[in-house]
Amino acid sequence: MEKLEWVNPKTVPDFVEKFGGFNDYPPNWRQVSEQELFQSGRMIFPPEYQDFRQMYRNGKEITAMVEATLYFFPDGTGYAIEKDHFNRCFKYYTFAVCEHKYGKDIGKKPYEHIYVCEKCGRRLELDTSDCHSYS
Ligand SMILES: [Zn+2]
């Protein structure tokens, strides 16, 4: 079980620099279909931060406002859901500091999976052993 706690984004190191502020779109913002979001793999793990934003600044460009809740993952990627009141539906978005492109698994043990992003060098390490089980 998780308990949400409000934190000021300005107090999280590099957060505003990487993802912008309340009126900014995060980097590589794009609308996706529900199916694309489902297949993106972004909803496998719980997000690290959640932020409600009213965004209209995309760099120097000013756009129509999108009101959405954003979910940020530790790897710099995320997704967002907009409740479109006018069209009475949800809209989905993804964003990322880097659209990671992971290479092949370089883990040495059967339960150890290590992938390195070819673009930014980020390491993704997964432990698929049962040592974290709650049972
Ligand atoms: Zn990357």
Task: Kindly describe this structure.
The protein has 135 residues and is mostly beta strands. It has two domains: 5-96, no CATH class; 100-135, no CATH class. The chain is built from two helices and seven strands. The chain has helices spanning 15-19, 34-39; strands at residues 30-32, 49-58, 61-72, 77-84, 89-96, 112-116, 123-127. The strands form two sheets. The protein has a five-stranded antiparallel β-sheet with strand order 1-5-4-3-2. It has a two-stranded antiparallel sheet with strand order 6-7. Strand 2 (49-58) and strand 3 form a beta hairpin. The longest helix has 6 residues, at 34-39. The protein is globular, with a radius of gyration of 17 Å. The relative contact order is 0.16. The model has no long low-confidence stretch (mean pLDDT 92). Bound molecules: zinc ion. Zinc ion is lined by residues 98, 100, 117, 119-120, 122. The site of zinc ion has 6 residues, from loops.
Summarize the structure.
The protein has two helices and seven strands, in the order H-E-H-E-E-E-E-E-E.
**Strands side by side in the biggest sheet:** 1-5-4-3-2
Bound molecules: zinc ion
Q: Percentage of helical residues?
A: under 10%
How many domains? The number is 2
The overall pLDDT average reads 92
Q: What kind of sheet is the major sheet?
A: 5 strands, antiparallel
Number of strands: 7
Structural class: mainly beta
Number of helices: 2
Unreliable segments (pLDDT under 50, ≥5 consecutive)?
A: none
